[in-house]
Amino acid sequence: MSHYKPYPVYKDSGVEWLGQVPGHWAVSPLKYVVTFRSGGTPSKDKQEFWDGDIPWASAKDLKKEQLEDTQDHLTELAVTSGAASLVPAGSVLVVVRGMILARIFPVAEAMVPMAINQDLKALHASSKLDGRFLAHLLRGLADESLCRLEEAGHGTKALRMEAWTSMQLTIPPSEEQCAILSHLDRETVRIDALVEKKARFIELLREKRQALITHAVTKGFDPNVKMKDSGVEWLGEVPEHWAVCKLSFRYSVELGKMLDEKKLTKTSLVPYLRNQDVQWGAINIQNLPEMDIHPAEIERYTVMDGDLMVCEGGDVGRAAIWRGESSVFGYQKALHRLRPRLQNTDTAEFFFFSLLTAKKRGVFEESDSKATIAHLPAEKFRQYRFAFPPKREQREIADHVRIESDSLDVLLTKTARSIALLKERRSALITAAVTGQIDLREAT
User: Fold this and answer.
1) Which domains does the chain have, with CATH numbers?
2) What's the burial of 400, exposed, middle or buried (CB within 10 Å: 0-12/13-18/19+)?
3) Residue 92 · residue 122 · CB < 8 Å
4) How far apart, in whole angstroms, are the C-alpha atoms of residue 346 and residue 395?
5) Count of alpha carbons within 13 Å of 122, Cβ hemisphere only?
6) 158-199: per-residue pLDDT in tens?
7) What is the enclosing helix (H) or strand (E) of 157?
8) In this structure, how many other beta carbons lie within 10 angstroms of the beta carbon of residue 365?
9) Phi-psi region of 309 (alpha: psi -120 to 50; beta: other; left: phi over 0)
10) Cβ-count burial of 38 within 10 angstroms (0-12 exposed, 13-18 middle, 19+ buried)?
11) How far apart are CA 240 and CA 255, in angstroms?
């Protein structure tokens, strides 16, 4: 933002964290320039209050800066009976209580009349403030708002309302607010368009990578190979010389040890992997808990180089390969350990990509409801059918996919970083504009 000029004259705001402000700007506590409206939740037991046409906003809706609709809706009866009330269009909505405050401070403008729940406040600007300027002002001072939190139980955060409503705001003259808004509108629209373009590019890269992987593990890379019907819907046709069989014919599938803290003796403690430690292609080994694994159980409940660890619950089928640790590590019952039955027949690197494709194609979903299975029992897992090329071809396919994926990952990382920088620039611009660090009165 080096091309922006500062104001010619500044004064001390009298607020340590705010510092200098333009000489002709006012400074005022939030509670003196806005009025507040609270919300609530009508009884869930009264169906006549729900699924109407009136938007009812909660924290999950404040993902956009301008809110025209919400996930949940109320009926007219909910409002006329007094179970809910409407805030007018133009209200500035903020989250004052919720787990989301541990990360961000959402601010949105209500574009239509709507009801809000008890975790939100609706702010109405006085004549000194343009409502849209107020929204940008609160976004620009988000870090200061988050400095005024308290614990609200069960990991939830809440604003300390007296401290927050006493937070000092910068108040430019009305015509200057309009100039600032005009410039922010132009710049944020331009930045948002760039972010959207780059986000779409990331989607295309991910689609390209998945298409590469899917083709590799179901068709191979020989365009002239004879094909056959695999007999498995999600596989379709596969090369004629590939085997198609149940997982149990090629891999041993062992579920980890059930953790029983009542029987913990602490005589044979071993760090162990949990479901959350296994992410796609990566395994966490930092700050692992420990469990008793007796010497007689070591072979059954520990991992060795090349084992494929697969999530039994949660994000069913998520997998990663265990690599290189010589120390003894166990694994909990929430994970499957897969090992090729014959080392000269299969390689976990290839089957990792097969699992990724199976997951993307909904193999681990219920055929009726399409709801993800909460758990994948070992016996059920063993019955799934997969395609298996000869081991040499498995290695060639896995190596090719890994090289191509690594190249795409470089682009993905670079693009994601570019998006993060654009978002940082957007936030910094808003903060600088609404606190008077830059003079936008004649900016083009």
Assistant:
1) 26-171 (3.90.220.20), 221-388 (3.90.220.20)
2) middle
3) yes
4) 9
5) 26
6) 999 999 999 999 999 999 999 999 999 999 999 999 999 999
7) strand 157-159
8) 15
9) beta
10) middle
11) 33
Contacts of 343 (CB under 8 A, 6+ apart): none
For residue 321, count CB atoms less than 10 angstroms from its CB and return exposed for 0-12, middle for 13-18, buried for 19 or more: buried
Among the listed residues 284, 327, 279, the one whose alpha carbon sits nearest the alpha carbon of residue 303: 327
Secondary structure letter of residue 312 according to DSSP = S
Mean of per-residue pLDDT scores for the chain: 94
8 A C-beta contact, residue 30 and residue 121:
no
What tens digit of pLDDT does each residue of 267-325 get? Answer: 789 999 999 999 999 999 999 999 988 888 889 999 999 999 999 988 999 999 999 76
Other CB atoms within 10 Å distance of the CB of residue 107: 22
Residue corresponding to tokens 């009305």:
174
Cα separation, 178 vs 296, whole angstroms: 75
Instruction: Give the Cα separation of 441 and 174 in Å (integer).
Output: 12
φ, ψ for residue 256, nearest 5 deg: -70, -175
276 token code pair:
């959350």
DSSP string, 233-265: TTT-EEETTSEEEEHHHHEEEEE-BPP-GGG--
The whole-model pTM stands at: 0.84
